[in-house]
């Protein structure tokens, strides 16, 4: 009994399945060929001409179309689906019917003159990194932070050495000195390397006379100052005069050589002329400043007059 | 774009993008259709052209006013050389590679020429005569939205046996298939174009498919006729030579799917792959250390036993 009922159940299940699929099954002699990528179906079955003539043309065609479309849709529904933004889409495979292209396939562009040269020489393309460390940026950043600290009255450690990309010998020496003296006892007990030289230019940069001290000295200095200011003749600094003379001679020779060279020489000559003028003026001022006021800037010392 | 000699160098990025879009590419754009009229056209032909333009709306260009003045040459046997030059000009202007030319005269009434181009030169041309025609407006039903990708069905033995019909099948597929997409919305499969080849005639019908509930996942299809319906008769054809056809089909190598190497299957379907290893010094192989089997300074016999055990262990590993 039980066996019977199982068979019955199975038979019934099959029947139900068939019923369900009845609405979508289509009977055809030959199976259709499909190209789902293009949503195309090819029906190769013979069409019954008699039936075509008996029925109304449109109805016959419509029923044929319905059957074929049903088969095509059945085939499409067999493919995997996915949900894209609340819409169910079916993923189509690649189209299988070979169709001619619109234009011929693209040709690889011919190498440029540089590319050919590079190939010939064996030069390879080097990739540049986008960012390069720049000391100016780092310095800017440091100053910015210091400004912020100053604005917010936060204590900041004092003298720093701003980072520099290419450090010269003097920079390195300075860095070493600063590091050395940044100890609890201000570098007094730091050992020096065997060949290391003692740092120069340390100590006070300017020396001022005490405000109340040697009265006679002060009087003497001020009188000397007045004497120099009064005198109409410019003072002669022998050293300076000799140096100036030597320099001018050198410059004349150089100018003569450049003039022979042509345009380039003329330019160079110009520069040298400027330098000479500026240098002379600067030197005059500097020297005078050191020993009190020297001759006014317009005049030059007792050098060679006339020639600039 | 004027027909200039020499290369047109784009001056803006937008122009460059435009030209790159039209240049030959690996995966190509949708094919554009040029729809144009000949010297004499009847109402049927004009209406038919308009309907097909409506079917192919976004990727079609309808030339309303241009009529070829050289209609004298239309009477010449195929190929129509003058028409060719004009066609090429227009196809380059709008970047079209398909054309539809409608004309009407006593000898060939209600003529439609479907054609396609390869590299702006004519590849195939097939002339179809309209025997019966029902326009879009004549059939009063709600239509499909513009730009839906249609499903195409070709029925009839002729499409498989006859060379001309085979080319026609390929041409019609090219014409009506629309853009090639990786996925399609299931509910959007509305438009069906059905071509039947019977007794030398080709019946084209356009339906709207309604997806009805069936017992299972796949819906039941009911059709409703909408769009234009044509009864065509095949007239003349001008098909491409075999080698030109082959050249047109040549796909660039880059599009070929890359074959995965080092995968092999045996008769049972098990997937195999080969592992390539460097040469190993078996003496220095790292194995499980078993304390009990370590070398001991004992009698020689015991040592031998141990070494033999060790070698066995290596093989197992």
Assign an overall shape of chain B: elongated
Task: Give a quick account of the main beta sheet of chain A: strands, pairing sense, barrel closure.
Answer: 2 strands, antiparallel
Mean residue pLDDT of chain B: 81
Please report the distance between the alpha carbons of the first and last residues of chain A. 135 Å
Spatial strand sequence of the major β-sheet of chain A: 1-2
Considering DSSP H and I runs of 4 or more, what fraction of the residues of chain A is helical? 40-55%
Measured by residues with Cβ under 8 Å of the partner chain's Cβ, the largest interface is: A-B, 54 and 66 residues
DSSP E strands of chain B, number: 13
Detail the topology: elements first, then pairings.
The complex is a heterodimer of chains A (308) and B (317).
Chain A: H1 2-22, E1 33-35, E2 40-43, H2 49-54, H3 57-77, E3 81-84, E4 87-91, H4 113-121, H5 135-151, H6 169-181, H7 215-230, H8 238-261, H9 263-290
Antiparallel strand pairs in A: 1-2, 3-4
Helix pairs in contact in A: 8-9
Chain B: H1 13-22, E1 33-37, H2 43-55, E2 60-67, H3 81-94, E3 98-103, E4 111-118, E5 121-134, E6 151-155, H4 158-161, H5 163-176, E7 183-185, E8 191-198, E9 201-212, E10 220-225, E11 229-238, H6 242-249, E12 264-265, E13 271-272, H7 300-316
Parallel strand pairs in B: 1-2, 1-3, 6-8
Antiparallel strand pairs in B: 3-4, 4-5, 5-11, 8-9, 9-10, 9-11, 12-13
What does this structure look like?
The complex is a heterodimer of chains A (308) and B (317). Chain A contains 9 helices and 4 strands, in the order H-E-E-H-H-E-E-H-H-H-H-H-H. Chain A is 50% helix and 5% strand. The longest helix of chain A is centred in the last third of the chain and has 28 residues, at 263-290. Chain A has 308 residues and is mainly alpha-helical. Chain B has helices at 13-22, 43-55, 81-94, 158-161, 163-176, 242-249, 300-316; strands at 33-37, 60-67, 98-103, 111-118, 121-134, 151-155, 183-185, 191-198, 201-212, 220-225, 229-238, 264-265, 271-272. In chain B, strands 1, 2, 3, 4, 5, 6, 8, 9, 10 and 11 form a 10-stranded mixed beta sheet that branches. In chain B, strands 12-13 form a two-stranded antiparallel ribbon. Chain B is elongated, with a radius of gyration of 33 Å. By secondary structure, chain B is of the alpha+beta class.
């Amino acid at each position: 009994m039980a066996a019977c009922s199982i068979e019955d159940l199975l038979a019934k299940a099959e029947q139900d399945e068939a019923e369900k699929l009845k609405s979508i099954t289509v009977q055809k002699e030959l199976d259709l060929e499909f190209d789902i990528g293009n949503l195309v179906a090819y029906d190769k079955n013979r069409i019954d001409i008699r039936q075509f003539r008996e029925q109304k043309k449109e109805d016959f065609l419509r029923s044929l179309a319905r059957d074929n479309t049903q088969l095509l849709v059945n085939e499409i529904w067999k493919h995997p689906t996915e949900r894209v933004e609340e819409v169910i889409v079916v993923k189509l495979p690649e189209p299988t019917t070979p169709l001619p292209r619109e234009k011929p396939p693209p040709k690889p562009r011919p190498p440029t003159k540089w590319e050919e040269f590079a190939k010939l020489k064996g030069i390879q393309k080097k990739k540049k990194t986008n960012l390069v460390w720049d000391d100016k940026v780092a310095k800017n950043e440091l100053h910015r932070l210091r400004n912020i600290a100053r604005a917010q009255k936060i204590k900041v450690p004092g003298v720093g050495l701003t980072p520099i990309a290419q450090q010269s010998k003097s920079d390195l020496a300075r860095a070493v000195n600063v590091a050395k003296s940044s100890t609890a006892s201000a570098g007094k007990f730091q050992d020096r390397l065997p060949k290391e030289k003692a740092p120069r230019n340390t100590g006070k940069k300017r020396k001022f006379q005490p405000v109340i001290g040697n009265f006679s000295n002060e009087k003497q200095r001020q009188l000397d100052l007045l004497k120099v200011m009064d005198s109409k003749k410019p003072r002669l600094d022998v050293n300076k005069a000799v140096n100036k003379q030597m320099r001018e001679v050198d410059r004349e020779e150089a100018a003569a050589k450049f003039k022979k060279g042509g345009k380039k020489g003329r330019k160079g000559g110009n520069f040298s002329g400027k330098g000479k003028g500026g240098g002379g003026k600067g030197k005059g001022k500097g020297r005078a400043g050191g020993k009190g006021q020297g001759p006014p800037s317009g005049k030059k010392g007792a050098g060679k007059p006339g020639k600039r | 774009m004027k027909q200039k000699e020499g290369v047109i160098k784009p001056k803006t990025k937008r122009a460059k993008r435009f030209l790159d879009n039209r240049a030959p590419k690996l995966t190509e754009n949708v094919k554009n259709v040029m729809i144009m009229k000949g010297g004499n056209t009847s109402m049927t032909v004009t209406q038919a052209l308009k309907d097909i333009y409506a079917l192919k709306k976004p990727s079609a260009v309808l030339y309303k006013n241009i009529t070829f003045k050289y209609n004298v040459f239309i009477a010449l046997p195929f190929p129509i050389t003058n028409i060719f030059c004009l066609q090429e000009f227009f196809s380059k202007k709008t970047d079209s590679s398909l054309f539809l030319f409608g004309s009407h005269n006593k000898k060939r009434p209600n003529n439609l020429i479907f054609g396609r181009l390869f590299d702006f030169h004519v590849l195939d041309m097939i002339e179809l005569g309209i025997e019966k025609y029902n326009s879009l407006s004549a059939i009063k039903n709600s239509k499909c939205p513009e730009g839906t990708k249609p499903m195409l069905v070709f029925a009839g033995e002729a499409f498989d046996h006859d060379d001309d019909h085979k080319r026609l099948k390929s041409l019609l597929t090219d014409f009506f298939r629309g853009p090639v997409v990786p996925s399609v919305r299931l509910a959007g499969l509305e438009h069906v174009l059905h071509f039947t080849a019977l007794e030398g005639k080709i019946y084209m019908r356009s339906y709207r498919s309604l997806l009805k509930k069936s017992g299972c996942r796949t819906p039941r299809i009911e059709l409703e006729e909408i769009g234009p319906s044509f009864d065509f008769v095949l007239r003349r054809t001008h098909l491409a030579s075999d080698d030109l056809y082959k050249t047109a089909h040549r796909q660039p190598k880059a599009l070929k799917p890359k074959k995965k190497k080092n995968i092999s299957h045996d008769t049972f379907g098990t997937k195999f792959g080969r592992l390539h290893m460097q040469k190993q010094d078996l003496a220095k192989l790292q194995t499980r250390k078993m304390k009990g089997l370590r070398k001991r300074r004992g009698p020689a016999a015991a040592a031998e036993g141990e070494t033999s055990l060790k070698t066995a262990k290596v093989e197992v590993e």
